[in-house]
Design brief:
Layout lengths: L1 H5 L13 E10 L2 E10 L18 E7 L7 H11 L4 E7 L12 H5 L3 E6 L8 H13 L11 H16 L5 H8 L4 H13 L5
Parallel strand pairs: 3-4, 4-5
Antiparallel strand pairs: 1-2
The structure holds guanosine-5'-triphosphate (GTP) and magnesium ion (MG).
Length: 204
C-alpha cells in the first residue's frame, strides 16, 4: 500500500501494520480520477478477528503473499472474502519478485474462486509490477461497480472532508457533532448520507 501511494524510491523500512490502517489512494485512468478509501489490514494473527468488521459489502480486495514463502494462508483469506463479501473482486499480489523468480501459485484456485480477477507479481524494492497493479485496480473499479457509483449532492461530498477533519483529532466522533457540522437539517437526508459514507468505508 505504501508503494502504491508513494512509489518505491524510499528505503524499504516498512513498519508492521497494527490493526487496520485507513487512508486513501488516488488513481488516474481514461475515465478520470478515482479516489479509493484503502484499508491496510495487519497480517498478524492477533488482528485477524478484527478484519471482518472492516470488510465492506463491495470493494476490491488485494491479498498479498511473499514469493519467498509461497501462498501460505491464501485459501483461508479467499474463503473469508467469499463468505463476507461475495460481490467484491480480488487481486492476488505476490511480493518480493526482486529476490524470487519462480512462483508456486496454485492456479486451481482461479476456478474455485471466480472472484479472483488477476494474479500479479510485484517488487516493493525496485517497483516492478506496481504500475500494472495500479492499472488493474483502476480497471476493476470502472467495471461492475455501478451499484456503488451514483450521483450525489455536493454537500454529501463535503461530509467526507468533515469526517476526515474530525478524525484528525481522534479516530471516532459523535453523531451530534457530525450532524451540526454537516448542516443537513433533514433527518432522512442525513440518514441517507450516513449510509452512503458507510458503504464507501468513510466510517463505521
Ligand atoms: N526485497 C523486498 N522486500 C520487501 C518487499 N515487500 C516488502 N518487503 C519487506 O518485507 C518486510 C515486510 O513488508 P510489509 O509490507 O511490512 O509486510 P506486511 O504484509 O504489510 O506485514 P504486516 O504489516 O505485519 O501485516 C519489510 O521489511 C519490507 O521492507 C519486496 O517486494 N521486496
Ligand atoms: Mg503492513
Amino acid at each position: 500500500m505504501k508503494t502504491l501511494k508513494e512509489g518505491n524510491e524510499k528505503k524499504l523500512n516498512f513498519e508492521v501494520t497494527h490493526g487496520v490502517n485507513i487512508s486513501d489512494l488516488t488513481l488516474n485512468g481514461e475515465n478520470g480520477e478515482t479516489i479509493f478509501t484503502t484499508f491496510d489490514f495487519g497480517g498478524q494473527k492477533v488482528y485477524h478477528s478484527l478484519h471482518p468488521f472492516f470488510m465492506l459489502k463491495k470493494s476490491i480486495f488485494i491479498i498479498t503473499y511473499n514469493l519467498r514463502y509461497g501462498p501460505l494462508n491464501l485459501e483461508y483469506w479467499l474463503h473469508s472474502v467469499k463468505t463476507r463479501s461475495p460481490k467484491s473482486s480480488i487481486l492476488i499480489v505476490a511480493t518480493h519478485s526482486d529476490s524470487v523468480d519462480e512462483d508456486s501459485f496454485p492456479f486451481y484456485l482461479n476456478e474455485k474462486f471466480p472472484q479472483i480477477k488477476d494474479i500479479l507479481k510485484v517488487s516493493n524494492k525496485n517497483g516492478n509490477g506496481i504500475e500494472l497493479l495500479k492499472k488493474k485496480i483502476y480497471e476493476i473499479s470502472q467495471q461492475n461497480y455501478d451499484d456503488i457509483r451514483f450521483k450525489v449532492p455536493l454537500n454529501f461530498l463535503k461530509l467526507i472532508e468533515i469526517s476526515k477533519e474530525l478524525k484528525k483529532e481522534k479516530p471516532y466522533f459523535d453523531l451530534k457533532t457530525f450532524k451540526e457540522k454537516s448542516k443537513i437539517e433533514d433527518e432522512f437526508e442525513f440518514e441517507r448520507a450516513l449510509k452512503m459514507l458507510h458503504s464507501w468505508g468513510n466510517f463505521f
